[in-house]
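Record now logged for everyone:
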Amino acid sequence: MIQFAHPEHLQYLFLLPLIALVLWGAWYLRNRSVRRYGLRSTVLRMVPARSRVKYWLRGSILLLAFASLIVAYANPKVGTKFEEVTRSGIDLIVAIDVSSSMLAEDIQPNRISAAKKELQNLINNLKGDRIGIIVFSGEAYTQLPLTSDYNAALMLTDVITTGIAPRPGTAIGSAIELARESFKKEEGKYKAMVIITDGENHEDDPVAVAKEAAPEGIVIHTIGMGSLEGAPIPVGSGDRRQGFKKDQDGNLVLTRLDDETLREIARITGGSFTQALSGRDNLATVFEQIERMEKKEFGTKQFTDFEDRFQYLLFLGLLLLVTELLISETRNRFLSRFSIFAPNEEKEGDER
């Protein structure tokens, strides 16, 4: 396993395309200056030692050297000791609604973005608990099985968006049922679920499924995304927005928070309901109840010791810089017999 002591330094890798652009610009200006003295093919015959391939070879080595030094600056660490660590916590599954109604903007910037932020905040505050992620619209799908790898969970939140679940609609009951299958049946406790949705259910009866989950010890907390007044559903995205969703009669479709259903699901299973509001810590109540839950001990295998490996990349970067300095742009006399570094001036002259 590899991790970085200073991952924020990896942002300097975005400078590499800029360096490549500078190299291309230098090459372009050089060629333009050559044309001032006459036909390019004629001028190149006057300076046969010039090698186009070596110029780009030096540029490629220079880019690779900078990349190595930047990664070394971030200080990569490699796990060297893998052992089982005992943790204490609960099994927690978060189900997030990815139906099109989650694009409504009654919570800024929109419901789905706010829901992802809630999920990220939840993951960042977990201590020893295992987490799983389910996405659902007309059907539920497991995005991440139960795990103690919070970094993997955070990375997966980036790809969550509306449309990743192919079947349209909203099926909260399907998400609860999938969570029941993910939990251990023999355990009557240590299990919690957080459902982040606007509550507009069209596919099944989530209250009935919640009644089946309650005897199994699954505590369900619900977070309602949206307003009771409702909001239109944008069609398209960004600069390509085409307006708002309308029904067959041309009337604007409004999506409203169904708080009654979400409150009932939470009540049946002993959980809590929270209506999400912009600029507020909507998970405070959920955190409090999770912390009060009885914990179980379970072992997880993970790397416990990490060693620095920046020195290898630092050496590679310096070696590449020295190599780049030693490579001249003149053609090798022996290899030039095979036209390996030739600028194809004859071919270019024929074309002209």
Notes: Residues 52-73 form the longest helix (22 residues). The first strand starts at residue 2 and ends at 4. Confidence is low (pLDDT under 50) at residues 338-352. DSSP finds eleven helices and 13 strands in the chain.
